[in-house]
Amino acid sequence: MGGDLPTYDQLRGVERDVLWGLLDELGTPPWSATYEYVWQRNRETWQAVRAALEQAAAGVRPASTRDRAPRWLVPLVREHMVQLSRTWAQGEAFLAARLLERLGLVGVDTDDVYVLALVSGLGDRRNETSRAAALRDDPDLVDRALWRVFQVEGGGEVSLANVDKFSQPEASWRNTFLELVADGTLPRDRVLTECLGALQRDFSAYRAGWFSSLYATMEPTIDEQADHQRRLRDLVRSQVSPTVTMAVKRLRAVGRSGLLDDPETVTALGPALLSPVKGTAVEAVRLLDDIATRREDLRPAVVEAVSAALSHPHADVQRGAVLLLDRLGAPDVARAGATSLEPSVQLLVGVGPEVQPSAGTPPAGMAVAEMPAARMPAAVTAADLPDRLAALMEDASDPLEVELVLGGLASCADVSRLAPLRKRAATVLARGPREGVQTGWLRGQLARLVLIAAGEQPAAIPVSSAPQAFLVHRLDEVSAVLAGREPPGRPVATPDALAGWLSPGELVRRITDADRPPRHHDVVAALLRLAPGDREDALALPAMQRIAGPLGQVVRHALGAAPDTDGSLAGPAAWWVAASRARAPVEPDSLLLSAKLGAAGQGRPVDARLDLSGSPHSYQDARGTHNYTAWTWNVTVDRSAPDPLLDQPTVVTDTKPTGWGRVAAEDWVGWTAMVWPHDAEHFLVDSCDAVLAAAASGDVSHDAARVLDALLRHPGRLGRLAAETVAAGLSATGRDQRARAVDAVLDLVPGRIPVDSLAAAMTHQSGLATATRWAQSLRDVAQTSADGSRTVVALLTGVLPELPPAHRGLHALLDLLHQEVLRTRAVVTDAGLRQWLHGVTGSSRAAVSAKGLLAVR
Q1: Contact 117, 146 (CB under 8 A)
Q2: Which residues, including other chains, have CB under 8 Å from residue 490's CB and lie 6 or more apart?
Q3: Which of 49, 62, 275, 576 is the most exposed place for a label (fewest CB within 10 A)?
């Protein structure tokens, strides 16, 4: 909206009342017209504004002048600024509003919205118009707004960092500042100090990095950095790790020039010594070493400061601190803190590694607190149904509670009890799901039930997977009761045990006690969650004999009775499939195979595998060319069905990656996992994607933590996909996601997931995963107990020989193995691992750890 506008010089001689008159004459009709969308009015009005300014520049006068701005002009400009502040225009869309402001036609506050609109719309991402030229021609804009870009962070699409990331280097904001400093438009020292001032603000690492980059690109001299050292010391306390790294390195450079205020620096370095970035903490130790070398009088202060580094989690930082303390004649300080040191560092101070107790054997004198046993929640009563349903409309992540409330709704004889929830339900539906969550979100589905109970007919909300569609059919069976089309009655599928199990005897009693036959999807759900125990007792119940017809045959088959048919299956195929998957979840069923129900999840178990594919790519930005590997994946299932079967939720089809911008299932995750408690593989066919996405990139993967939580709770078979999911979780981007994967290793390995299965999955994902994240996660596993340490040693013994010696991040895994071998006082005896360690040569960190492992005796 800039482009071919008349210039300020062409218009500044035109009287203001003339300009207002033309704007009113041409702009009021399109502003007052009716449009289908709001944006159409704004677009048409801005075109009229452009035409009015062009006519004014050409000497045209309005039919009548005005002494004030048209009533729509300020709202138009404000809406435009707000839109620019949120969405990157990628062109010079700021210029039209700025021209109106310069001409005195409209007043605009220089607030955060204004500053972000400037960032978004002053220039062009391809440098078709120069920001530097626009700012030279408008010095008032520099004084009023340009310096404020160092104070306003931005977010989403609009920030200095994001605009520059997707712009040509010559069209970047960074290049704009360099040009303006070079020609004297902007004072160099102020730009440098404003960069450091921005880094002191609470900006995210991504956006703070832009200011660090500009500061570095300007190549400040040592004298300039010495003048900035107070600000640099303040940056040591930053929550952004790269900022701390930059500050420590520049302080050390100032120190080498002899211009550093050493006493102030010693007292300021504490946060850097505990930086999660190992290199930063090591550099801080080296800076203290420099200071102690040139200032003997500060050695006691250095000893006190560097002792904090003994509690750093990384061995290299601890080692640097121990060696410095020894050089300063304070080895006793290191020995006093030896319990927090890694095993290899403990040896430096003459203390042997402490052997951790097994998880089940606490140290002497430590009491073991008994955890309270988990209890089945109380059944829903008519009195508490409204409150419990209201809670689910806010958070439906507890699948057991969803099932219990669903049972309460199906049994509800007086739907007027739900009337107080109607307004809230309408609000939930109108507001829709949170950003990034699928439109068929579970809380919205539950809100629909409330409106149906109130006599309304809300539109159906489509879902995105066959298991979800099956669960929606169960909701529809309940909605028929709430709408008065079906009589109320207790569902047979409501769990009566934790993890979603239904006791066999309880199923028999519910069927025989009911006044009417159970509904179709209710039967399927009940059979799929049939608990594995007490089946013979259920078959022997007298009530069992009263279940006649196809339903009786199906229930007996699910409970393990010998087939009593001639091979033909009476009743719905979906009932027989559910009965088969409850009867022998991981075995083929000859009865169903003979009836040609042989797909995975029908007469056969689910046998799934994860296929990975990586392809090389590159991109360019202001920093140069970057190479990376883009990973895709799909789940292949032997004998998969060609199409989903919506009343057979265990039947699976092959899946393909959903790609960038995947939509979260949110609360559906837990409920879907509970559909078939016998086998987690079925649930993971669709769900493992979220965890793999969290490991493969930095994009937000909303469901990853939910999937790992559901996997941890799942009582059934954990196969290859379970191991792949845990392996991906250990390398996930989010710390909360990795923490859940750590819990999964502690609870599931080696019991329900064999060590060699998890090692094979990690090897399979070695290209996709980030080895340093694996190391961080496995260190957490190892530090829990001796059992955790042994599990980590076993895992790395299986994984490392499958990795090339040049594998990125290998040093972190080798260092972890070295520490755990020392901690457990073990020796590397595996022949394959020893042979591989001999092949890791050179002077790299990985090679040093490999030599250390081979030297353990």
Answers
A1: no
A2: 407, 410, 411, 510, 514
A3: 62
Question: Residue 645 burial by CB count (10 A; 0-12/13-18/19+): exposed, middle or buried?
Answer: buried
Residue type at 604? Answer: R
DSSP 127-141: -SS-HHHHHHT-HHH
CB atoms within 10 A of CB 16: 15
Q: What are residue 485's phi and psi, to 5 degrees?
A: -80, -20
Rounding to the nearest 10 degrees, give the CA dihedral for residues 731, 732, 738, 740. -120
Pair 665, 438: CB distance under 8 Å = yes
Coil/strand/helix, residue 632: strand
From CA 338, how far away is CA 681, in angstroms rounded? 45
DSSP category for residue 309: G
User: What is the C-alpha separation between 477 and 662, in angstroms, rounded?
Assistant: 30
Give CA separation, 228 vs 51, 190, 195, in Å: 50, 11, 11
Place of tokens 């066999």: 504
Helix (H, G, I), strand (E, B) or coil at 614: strand
For the stretch 277-304, pLDDT in tens is 989 999 999 999 999 999 999 999 999 9
Q: Give the Cα separation of 723 and 744 in Å (integer).
A: 10
CA count, 13 A, side-chain hemisphere, 699: 17
CA dihedral 745, 750, 751, 756 (to 10 degrees): 110
Q: How does DSSP classify residue 546? A: G
Question: In this predicted model, which residue has the larger pLDDT, 39 or 219?
Answer: 219
8 A C-beta contact, residue 253 and residue 225: yes
* Kind and range of the H or E run holding 626: strand 624-637
Q: Quick check: 445 and 437 in contact, CB under 8 A?
A: no
Nearest residue to 650 (alpha-carbon basis) of 781, 395, 466, 409: 466
CA distance 510 to 492: 6
Region of residue 261 (phi > 0: left; psi between -120 and 50: alpha; otherwise: beta): beta
Closest of 783, 799, 782 to residue 791, by C-alpha: 782
Four-residue CA torsion sign, 813, 817, 820, 822: negative
**What is residue 59's three-state secondary structure?**
coil
SS3 label, residue 203: coil
**H or E element at residue 356:** none
d(CA 664, CA 693): 12
Residues sharing a CB contact under 8 Å with residue 707, sequence separation 6 or more, in sequence order: 669, 684, 687, 688, 690, 691, 725
Residue 34 corresponds to which amino acid? T
Q: Is 807 exposed, middle or buried (0-12, 13-18, 19+ CB in 10 A)?
A: middle
- What CA–CA distances, in Å, run from 660 to 603, 700, 765, 766? 35, 9, 19, 21
Distance CA 299, CA 309 (A): 16
pTM of the model: 0.77
Q: What is the pLDDT of residues 56-78, one digit of tens each?
A: 999 999 999 999 999 999 999 99
d(C-alpha 552, C-alpha 565), whole Å: 12
Cβ atoms of 770 and 731 closer than 8 Å = yes
- Burial zone of 15 (CB within 10 Å; 0-12 exposed, 13-18 middle, 19+ buried): exposed
What does DSSP assign to residue 380? P
Is 743 strand, coil or helix? helix
Per-residue pLDDT tens for 220-275? 999 999 999 999 999 999 999 999 999 999 999 999 999 999 999 999 999 999 99
Q: Which helix (H) or strand (E) holds 631?
A: strand 624-637
DSSP letter at 630 equals E
Helix H or strand E encompassing 615: strand 608-621
Could you tell me which of 17, 13, 15, 28 has the C-alpha nearest to residue 67? 17
Distances (CA, A) of 382 to 147, 389, 417, 421: 63, 11, 8, 14
Q: Structure tokens of 666?
A: 């949110």
Q: Are 259 and 222 in contact (CB under 8 A)?
A: yes
Helices 704-713 and 720-730 meet at what angle, rounded to 10? 130
